[in-house]
Design brief:
- The chain is an all-alpha fold and about 90 residues long.
- It has a domain of about 35 residues.
- Helix content is about 40%, strand content about 0%.
- The chain is rod-shaped.
- It starts with about 40 loop residues before the first helix and ends in a 14-residue tail after the last helix.
């Protein structure tokens, strides 16, 4: 049984199709296509975008927590409560 499928065999320009196909010397017929028609990069790209968005969101939350900690640490103390009820 051959190792490759019929769609992945190399096609010589002289035996390809009845159209006038021109390819550069030494190039395969598949080299004239743009992109990779057998590769699926959509999942990797989506994963990278999701990771970047999650890291940005995490950075925003951590930044706000640090700001809250600094604000609580540097805020002036509350005045002591007054005992208005004790004077009566």
């Amino acid at each position: 049984m051959p190792s490759g499928s019929a769609s992945h065999r190399r096609v010589e320009p002289s035996t390809s199709v009845n159209r006038n196909v021109t390819t550069p010397d030494g190039a395969f017929a598949a080299d004239t296509r743009k992109g990779c028609h057998t590769c699926h990069h959509g999942g990797v790209t989506t994963a990278i975008i999701v990771v970047i968005v999650v890291l940005l969101a995490l950075g925003i939350v951590i930044n706000q927590l640090f700001r809250l900690r600094d604000w609580l640490k540097n805020s002036p103390p509350l005045p002591p409560p007054t005992d208005d009820d004790a004077e009566d």
